[in-house]
Amino acid sequence: MENRETLNRNLAQMLKGGVIMDVTTPEQAKIAEAAGACAVMALEKIPADIRAAGGVARMSDPKMIKSIQQAVSIPVMAKCRIGHFVEAQILEAIEIDYIDESEVLTPADDIFHIDKRKFKVPFVCGARDLGEALRRINEGATMIRTKGEPGTGDVIQAVRHLRKMQSEIRRIKSLSEDELYEAAKQLQVPFDLVNFVHENGKLPVVNFAAGGVATPADAALMMQLGAEGVFVGSGIFKSGNPEKRAQAIVKAVTNYDKPEILAELSEDLGGAMVGINEQEIQLLMAERGK
Amino acid sequence: MRIAILALQGAFEEHRQTLLKLGVESFLVRNLADYQREKDGMIIPGGESTTILKLLKDLSIFEPLKKDIEQGLPVFGTCAGLIMLDDKHLGTMNITVKRNAYGRQLGSFFFEGDFDGINGKIPMTFIRAPFIEKCGDGVKILSTVNGNIVAAQQGRQLVTAFHPELNDDLRVHEYFLKMC
Is the CB of residue B60 less than 8 Å from the CB of residue B66? Predict the structure, then answer.
């Protein structure tokens, strides 16, 4: 009675309370691991550079991903384009630990996401609200993260998405049972998933924050808002002192509700990534894949 | 009885829920001040062992925990928690552990196996799991799966390579509570 979906949800449970860091080289992966990352996301360019470079962003070179798998003992994740199930097959073939079907890359399909139940390896997907999260879970995602706005260093959208999700979860919880059918219709998801949220007051899978986290305070903010862990993309290796910042963010996620500890961690980190304000963004990645 | 659950990273909430079902009081340990509270036993959960080790050291919990276990504090380590107690980490158990012994996530699996001291099969979920390669003096093997040691006890220290906290079965936790 081995159930891949359960095992894949279980791996996400082991990542909770941790920080998953974007890395582009084996050296960066080692820095991330030594700093206490619970997993790394292997990609050729971090989101800030994808944003700056423009053009079509695709899955990374498998050779580069394998070099990162060899460099560290923690789980290694990698991104494929939304709807690009062949990129996902390739990532499964190199035994990736988690696939991120990610809006950071240019979508390959503007209607269909990948049928993630066809795969043995687990998937994490981005979501801006409860409907998106449950639709991805219905397709087989075993972990969810907020989309935020990748590569900006601006946390506002991650906050917006997480708050929206949490508030919708609270609303579903408060509904009477006969109102759940209409809620399922509105969210465009099966009744069973809505009913799970109603009964448990949470998603059926682990929910991380992502997109725009740049400081220990940002990470702790997401945790206090109810995230179960944090992805940090450009925020670490686009900053002045990646090693120190990475360690500080790891500790901030563990002691997210202890301002004295957070104050100490926030000292002397060097420059944070410069970032882009919401009004200056040319390309909204979070709009990709609903 | 009150059990401390190390909550630096990983699946600590699942242990808390399991203890709740057993009606046992528990609290989470995120820093040294939390650790210093009075307790009758300690659980080290699954998660990433490199992360947990780093935080144990950076938050100055490593040394007091090691000393307390050596002086008889009952401890239960699951997966990464098992690794924490081995000869390369806290060093309180005479065990040598192979990390990620079944490979990557594709090697994760579920099994129903025997557990010495508990009647009937125990559900065992292995997630990127380790196993024990070698046991030294004083270590009692409690369970093996396909010839690999996946549960053991040394005095008041209990370790499993699998995750009893992920299933509804409460018997392995009950086994630990009897040691406390």
Answer: no
When divided into structural domains, chain B yields a total of: 1
**Tens-digit pLDDT profile for residues A72-95:** 999 999 999 999 999 999 999 999
Tokens 């979920």 locate to: B125
Alpha-carbon gap, residue A222 to A243, rounded angstroms:
21
DSSP conformation class of A151: T
Contacts of A254 in chain B (CB under 8 A): 7-9, 30-31, 55, 59
Q: Rounded to whole angstroms, how far apart are CA atoms B83 and A286?
A: 39
What ipTM goes with this model? 0.96
What SS3 string covers B1-50? Answer: CEEEEECCCCCHHHHHHHHHHCCCEEEEECCHHHHCCCCCEEEECCCCHH
Question: What phi and psi values does residue B156 have, to the nearest 5 degrees?
Answer: -100, 25
> A182: buried, middle or exposed (CB in 10 Å: 19+, 13-18, 0-12)?
exposed
Pick the residue from chain A with its C-alpha nearest to B78.
A14
Helices (H), B89-139: none
Share of chain B above pLDDT 90, in %: 100
d(CA B125, CA A2) in angstroms, rounded, equals 9
Q: Do A17 and B8 touch (CB under 8 A)?
A: yes
Q: CA A189 → CA A142, A186, A203, distances in Å?
A: 16, 8, 13
Q: Which of A2, A3, A8, A10 to mutate to test the interface with B (most CBs of B within 10 A)?
A: A10
Give the residue from chain A lying closest to B124, CA to CA.
A2
Catalytic residue among B15, B79, B89, B173: B79
B104 contacts in chain A (CB < 8 Å): 69, 75, 95-97
Instruction: Using CB atoms, pick whichever of B11, B106, B125 lies closest to residue A16.
Output: B11
Residues of A acting as catalytic residues:
79
**Rounded-to-integer distance, Cα A212 and Cα A149, Å:** 6
pLDDT computed for residue A80 by the predictor: 97
Is A94 in CB contact (< 8 Å) with chain B? no
Domain that holds residue B92: 2-179
- In this complex, the residue of B13, B99, B127 whose CB is nearest that of residue A10 is B127
A217-265 pLDDT, tens digit per residue, is: 999 999 999 999 999 988 898 888 999 999 999 999 999 999 999 999 9
In CATH, what number is assigned to the domain containing residue B7? 3.40.50.880
| pLDDT (average), residues B33-62 | 97
C-alpha span between A240 and A267 (Å, rounded): 13
CB contact under 8 A, A74 and B58: no
Residue B72 has pLDDT above 80, yes or no: yes
Angle of helix B49-58 relative to helix B62-70, nearest 10 degrees? 100
